Amino acid sequence: MKQKRERKRVTPTTFTHSRCQAFLRCQMLHAWRYEYGIVPMEERIVFGFGSTIHECLDCWHSTRDLELIREFIDTTHSDRGINDRQRSQWHLAHAIMDGYAIKYQEEFFRTVATEMVIEGPVINPTTVRRQSSAHRMKFRGRIDGLVQRHEDIEVGPNGTYWLLEHKTTSSLNGNYMQAIWEDPQIFLYSTYLEQSRGIRIAGVIYNVLAKSRIEQRKEESEVEFEQRRAALLAKSKTGKSSAQRRLGESDEDFRTRLNDIYSPDATTPMFYRQEVLLDDRRRTEAMSELWWTVQSYRAAKRSGHWLKNRQQCHAYNSQCDYWTLCSAEPGEVDDLITTYYRTEDAFVELRKGAGWRELQKQREEKQNEGNIPHSADHTQITAF
Length: 384
Known about the structure:
- With 384 residues, the protein is of the alpha+beta class.
- The protein has a domain at 11-41 and 314-348.
- The protein has 14 helices and ten strands.
- The strands form three sheets. Strands 1, 3, 6, 7, 8 and 9 form a six-stranded mixed sheet that branches. A two-stranded antiparallel ribbon has the order 2-10. A two-stranded antiparallel ribbon has the order 4-5.
């Protein structure tokens, strides 16, 4: 009797929005990051701060416990006493979240879930067919929040839902908002969430937080003062100057300045929300772009040749993280990787931040032991 051949199980290749964007930006960059799992030894500071604020917002919309958020910020900036950059970000994170808690004491929506992972097969939108089992691909992502507006809750459990998308930016203007509206990410997320949960996503609420660029004033050294005073004397017609040495700004004074900037009464708003309805045409376009990006990836993977987009090597006056590797001689690459890079899980965006949850767990354990009383009013999210 002829035995039935056992089919080999193939692990699907995972694609995220970040991976697609990296591939479209530069195939070689994508290969270093996602094929070989190589990242710079020193992570860019801007990404670290954005992740901190995202986790703070996750905590706020899950518990509305500002004290827990403050404790989390303090814990994640433990070197602020010796690290000027970390101290600056510590001040900024506190000011942002304190102002956010005041600004949005009352919400017009109910939080259903936060940090929810969505996934599904990559499907050809024309034929509605997925890849063959030998080349199966899946798309994964993590949504910041799933909410229901109070006016939609009255419809019942099958009413419409909205995605809550957090954004941090140093430049909050019309160009920035136009750019995020054109981003296909949210259309992919809503489509896969609808397919997996059987719910209707009406749109997205963009929750934008602006990052202040002000810096804490440092004390002027004697050399700096003398140079500034000499320059003023050279311009003075009387040959005299009343300039005095500039003193440094205390932490309290700097925090006060930041708090004023993030006050609800501030002249320039630092918090902005925009509701955007999602249309089916854009969803179809996003799914089609995902499909053809994956097909281009498969072609590059088969050939073993990743194209370099040299226009991205120094785009926006910033050198690509992998330029050192791409410009090196073949025999130098291994040594450069060992010296300046490290290996890391490629899908950082799929990790669920556990910092504030661990702090919450520790607090609850102490409460159960009767060590510290705590009466904060927590609003837990509804299980979804």
